[in-house]
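Good morning,

Attaching, inline, the backbone tokens for the sequence recovery test we're adding to the shared suite. The designed sequence is right after.
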């Protein structure tokens, strides 16, 4: 579903006519003439004023806080209302008002639970109480730190292929979490999930994967971590609830900076064995629902192990060094794997591998 809109980047006075396309995860804003290609996740968008009949609906995104998008096409606005109902709420129903009141209640609740039970035990129930949309910015900051300057790859056909693959996995989920899946331009073989539904696949993993099914298996596993709220649980364990509240309400950049310097950002990725098994089970269920091979992860691992037997222990260095117990599972459960259609057709797979140019 798509239409037209008007976009200004907030840096110049220019107002550009753009094409707007609503996909599963956000708004794609493009203009060939003005060389604009943007993707605004629904969860990061904010309404500038409450929507009113007869006036263009103006929006911004936390990804581009200065930019403005005005939508006058009623069809596009209607579709947006379905995909991102939170943008159309007013007064007390608005996420920000609810969010601040909610955070105060959460902190009080957490404090009580903490005094009673201790932090590790409350992190799982607490993580489920925090709406994932609240964590979008926090995850974005950690993503920036963990990638330390590595670019996000935005090759157009590759991005489309990545959305196709992600959508194929989440299409069968009853209540899919809001996801922002990106490929980062680093040659390590790794992928990880962060608070707020951010999933990062490093270019090296795409290059070493034997086919789209192996990438699908890794994605399914990371979506499993997101659905189980593991990134949030880890953030609560590493940072404590007070700091989480600061990060969710305020800017929090300095805290993220300090944590990153102490290696805390990497700690976010060191899941417990139990968490890995949960994500493994959730990922496999997802692959089965999407009618994809459940053997691909083990195939990938076995090939990597043959190629480089001594994997480094650095958690950003190798996916399989942080996932040995599950990845070592012998590939043979899925007897029909060879007859299943691949997760992506050949041209989409080529496009995905070239997403970083
Ligand atoms: Zn994992």
């Amino acid at each position: 579903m798509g239409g037209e809109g008007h976009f200004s980047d907030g840096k110049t006075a220019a107002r550009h006519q753009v094409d707007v396309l609503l996909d599963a995860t956000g708004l794609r804003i493009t203009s060939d003439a003005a060389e604009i290609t943007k993707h605004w996740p629904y969860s990061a968008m904010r309404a500038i004023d409450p929507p009113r009949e007869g006036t263009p609906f103006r929006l911004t995104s936390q990804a581009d806080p200065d930019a403005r998008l005005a939508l006058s096409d009623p069809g596009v606005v209607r579709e947006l209302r379905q995909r991102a109902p939170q943008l159309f709420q007013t007064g007390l129903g608005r996420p920000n008002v609810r969010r601040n009141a909610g955070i105060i209640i959460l902190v009080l609740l957490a404090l009580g639970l903490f005094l009673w039970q201790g932090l590790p035990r409350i992190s799982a129930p607490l993580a489920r109480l925090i709406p994932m949309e609240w964590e979008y910015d926090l995850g974005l900051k950690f993503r920036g730190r963990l990638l330390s300057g590595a670019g996000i790859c935005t090759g157009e056909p590759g991005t489309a292929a990545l959305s196709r693959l992600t959508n194929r996995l989440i299409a069968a989920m009853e209540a899919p979490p809001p996801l922002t899946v990106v490929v980062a331009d680093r040659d390590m073989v790794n992928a990880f999930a962060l608070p707020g539904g951010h999933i990062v696949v490093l270019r090296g993993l795409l290059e070493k994967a034997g086919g789209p099914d192996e990438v699908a298996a890794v994605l399914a596993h990371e979506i499993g971590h997101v659905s189980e709220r593991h990134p949030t649980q880890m953030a609560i364990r590493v940072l404590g609830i007070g700091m989480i509240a600061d990060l969710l309400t305020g800017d929090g950049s300095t805290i993220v900076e300090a944590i990153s310097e102490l290696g805390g950002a990497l700690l976010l990725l060191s899941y417990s064995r139990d968490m890995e098994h949960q994500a493994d089970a959730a990922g496999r269920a997802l692959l089965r629902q999407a009618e994809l091979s459940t053997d691909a992860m083990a195939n990938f691992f076995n090939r990597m192990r043959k190629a480089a037997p001594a994997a480094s222990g650095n958690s950003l260095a190798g996916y399989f060094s942080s996932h040995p117990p599950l990845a070592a599972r012998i590939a043979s459960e899925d007897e029909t794997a060879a007859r299943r259609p691949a997760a992506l057709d050949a041209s989409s797979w080529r496009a995905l591998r070239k997403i970083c140019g």
